[in-house]
Amino acid sequence: MESLCLYGARDLRYEESAEPTIEHNDEVIIRVKRAGICGSDISRYKKLGPLTPGNIWGHEYAGEVVEIADNVTDLSLGARVAVCPALYCGKCDYCRSGYIAACPDLLVTGAKVPGGFATYVKVPRENVISIPDSISFEEAAFVEPSAVVVHGLFKTSLKPGDSVAVMGCGTIGLLAIQWAKIFGAEKVYAIDIEEEKLTLAKQVGADILVNPRDGSTFEQIMTFTKGYGVDLAVEAAGSAATSAQIFALPKKGGEVVFLGIPYSDVSIERFYFEKIVRQELKVFGSWNAVSAPFPGREFLATINSMSNKQLQVKPLISHRVPLKMGPEIFERIIGRDEMFTKVIFTL
Fold it and tell me: CA-to-CA distance for 167 and 241, rounded, in angstroms?
């Protein structure tokens, strides 16, 4: 079968791999139809992370069930499915308490076990989520990143009528804008330095666009909010600079949730750090997308919101390419000569 295997930093190879086979009584084999490139894939491609050299990559994907273990009786061949790629130990104190996202052995398919950048992938039955006919395979490839976003928002007290600032309008930020609206936010501020991404943010529901190139983000948000700030600030850019600047955006008693992951040290100027204390902010870190009962309400909420068309993900797709273009497309992404939001592999 065709596959994309990661061997080292910037060493991604399109090659033939052996098809997976059923080995345990809870396994399901899926014929992958669509797979997406995650922002974390880009960082791992450049700098590496948890990795088995030569492993099949990819953790955002959807497809059709083609083989099931004998003990799997609640799933049919031909079923259309999305996949939760998270794998956990199930034995540690965190897992047993239901706090699965905190499992010290948590990882996703594509890291140390074969992932979804391939014709076929094998996963445990509990990781497989049936999707209705109203959701395309292309949309279903967004189920996992959407669940990542809503996992973070569930930690907050976001409620109807609130104001939300989303820092960074990549895939995660654009999903956060939509989820803020689904939660009932009255006003959503989209923040990014790229006008093309801000235009896309407006298309998916942002009310006010803020470009830091036009002046201090803090001052712009204060002007729009008459000096108060927002109820919730969402860090979705994952840069060292924005990870500090985000603290200046909420109102007194407001909240910050971190969805982005900076891959360098974060230095916080006194101005921004003091906001945490003087504004009495609540700050949430958010990791992965799972909860109990596994895979969690994040995935169920996503399927529901996609099905009723509240969550629109197709506008987020900037490129659709065959799997064989994988090595080329990753190089183009890190080259930054063109705008990328979500890249979808078609298989």
Answer: 11
